[in-house]
Amino acid sequence: MVSTSQIQRFLIFLNNLSEEDIQKLENGDVSIRFEIIENHKRTKNSHTQQLIFNHSLDYGAVINEMLTLTNRPEGEKYLQEKFVSKEEYIGLAKKLDLPFSKKDSVEKLKDKIIEATIGYRIRSQAINEGVNNLEKKNSDN
Questions:
Q1: What is the torsion angle, in degrees rounded to the nearest 10, for the CA atoms of residue 105, residue 65, residue 84 and residue 95?
Q2: Are the C-beta atoms of residues 93 and 60 closer than 8 Å to each other?
Q3: 73 in helix, strand or coil?
Q4: Which one, of 1, 15, 3, 25, lies nearest residue 83 by Cα?
Q5: pTM score of the predicted model
Q6: Do 73 and 44 lie in a common domain?
Q7: Model confidence at 82: pLDDT above 50
Q8: End-to-end alpha carbon distance in the chain
Q9: Domain range holding 26?
Q10: Residue 68's pLDDT is what?
């Protein structure tokens, strides 16, 4: 039986397809093939590898979109729509050059990403508005 997580992973894969890939699919130039492959393969001298369904994940586009969002809940919703696995959140955190620990949970990684892309702007705007209101109040006196 197919789990909700597997369906969600596939839908994210489809949502991340480029316009060019979608056009090729519609024209019948390419097809999607499902294979059962091993997620984690460890050898004595290799690192864990996992790249399934995210070949077209564009972290730059995700970051650009996050920078346009205006509040934290929007950012959380957007990230949940884009990412399924912890490895994807780690990839984005690396792209943003954020410090993190491999022990960090998905929620903690998500919070760090949201803070780095949305939270700092909200704080900065609040500080600027406070300063402007204070200056206006002082100039009225």
A1: -60
A2: no
A3: helix
A4: 15
A5: 0.57
A6: no
A7: yes
A8: 72
A9: 1-56
A10: 92
Amino acid at 80: Q
pLDDT digits over 47-77, tens only? 443 434 444 568 888 999 999 999 999 999 9
Calpha distance 53→97 (Å, rounded): 24
Residues in the chain: 141
Same domain, 51 and 72: no
Residue with token string 């399934």:
52
Q: How far apart are CA 82 and CA 117, in angstroms?
A: 15
Contact 66, 73 (CB under 8 A): no
Instruction: Write out the two tokens for 30.
Output: 């390419």
Q: How many alpha carbons fall within 13 Å on the CB side of residue 49?
A: 8
20 and 64 belong to one structural domain: no
SS3 18: coil
Question: Which of 3, 134, 13 minimizes the C-alpha distance to 83?
Answer: 13
